[in-house]
Amino acid sequence: MAVLQAKKLKAALEKAKKVGLIEQPVIIAGCSFVFRSLTPEEYEAIGDETRELEDVAYLHGFQIGHLCRAIVEIDGVDLRDVNLIEIEEEDGKPVKLEKHAWVRDTFLKTWGREAITVAWRKFAELLIKAEEKAKEGIQFDIAEETDEDKLRRLLGEVRELGESIPGELLIRTLGESGLAPKVSQAEVDAAAAKLAEVETEAQPVPQPPIPQEDSSVSDLMRNRTPMNQGSVDLPAPAQSSAPVQVSASQKVPVPEAIRQSATPVQNLSRAAQIASLEGEPPPAPVTSQRPSVEAVELKRPISGGPVPVDRPPVAGVNPRYSPPRRA
Predict the structure, then answer these.
(1) Comparing C-alpha atoms, which of 72, 89, 95, 83 is closest to residue 25?
(2) How many CB atoms lie within 10 A of CB 62?
(3) CA distances from 234 to 230, 241, 260 (A)
(4) What's the distance, Cα to Cα, between the start and end of the chain in Å?
(5) pTM beyond cutoff 0.70
(6) How many CB atoms lie within 10 A of CB 100?
(7) Are 280 and 295 in contact (CB under 8 A)?
(8) In degrees rounded to 5, what are phi and psi of residue 227?
(9) Any idea where the domains of the chain sit in the sequence?
(10) 3-state helix, strand, coil in the chain (%, to 5)
(11) What CATH architecture does domain 22-134 belong to?
(12) What is the DSSP string of 61-87?
């Protein structure tokens, strides 16, 4: 079994340490700092610290947890290889704190929200640079992102930013970057002429004027009398030798003899009224006593004489009636 001494690999081991960790200096509010990317153990510790937090408290704890571990130098004081920092309490007893806890409680808790936001943005840039540096010199067989995918991603980010940036500022910025399309004056004039032509075609066609109604015709129609109203003068009928048909509604003179004979008809019976109108003597009054059935004698009425119509009906057995014979 071969044994290799570590001291012979010291140079190689030193070079392999802290691969992917980079540093970047930054000045915030006149104070200089040096930020360093974090190790996997530090990310796990941040997750444990913020597991019970919610909403805004989680956001503040998440950002401050990264920053207090990322600061490795404060105004020239090196904290890279420091794990614990000893402080003295009010009673004079020394107390040892972890480096990130000392940075958090001594500095970051006294910063304003704006300063923490700026420091966080700078730390985010550091993480992007660390990823790019880790990929330097490496050729991937399968590309992580094609040029088309990258273009789509960038355009999506620009579209999201466009919702919060004024349109004029966005167009001007794209024009300064050479991304906005450039239009010549000739193209602008041609577009304006085309637009004017379209607007002209879209205008409504003038309608012919409506003829005005003649005032004389209007007055005539307003003052006219309907044909079904008012009196109508009919022409008088021509004189003719033919007998004239007289309707019941017209008044006809009655001869005096008829008038005198018809004067007392109001108090007579219907038969007497008819006889009076025909110029015959009135029939004898009929008594209320009715003859018996045996005294009834059927007589043939005299032709040409008046027919009594007010007598009671004739009762009795028909002499011509022959009852059926029984077998």
Answers:
(1) 72
(2) 16
(3) 13, 21, 37
(4) 161
(5) no
(6) 24
(7) no
(8) -70, -20
(9) 22-134
(10) 45, 10, 50
(11) 2-Layer Sandwich (3.30)
(12) HHHHHHHHHHEEEETTEE-TT--EEEE
Beta carbons of 123 and 35 less than 8 angstroms apart: yes
Strand order in the sheet with 23-28: 23-28, 31-36, 71-74, 77-78
Read off the DSSP letter of residue 34. E
Mean pLDDT of the chain: 75
The β-bridge partners of 51 are none
Which residue type is seen at 163? Answer: E
128 versus 217: the higher-pLDDT residue is 128
Angle subtended at Cα 101 by Cα 88 and Cα 93, rounded to the nearest 5 degrees = 15
- 157-183 confidence digits (pLDDT tens): 877 776 777 777 777 777 777 776 565
- Which structure tokens are listed for 162? 């466009």
Between the alpha carbon of residue 260 and those of residues 232, 254, 284, the distances in Å are 40, 10, 20
Contact 131, 38 (CB under 8 A): no
Look at residue 289 in the predicted model and tell me its pLDDT: 53
Note whether 276 and 262 are within 8 A (CB): yes
Q: Is the pLDDT of residue 84 over 80?
A: yes
Torsional class of 212: left (φ above 0), alpha (ψ -120 to 50), beta (otherwise): beta
Please tell me the predicted confidence (pLDDT) of residue 159: 77
Percent of the chain surpassing pLDDT 90: 27
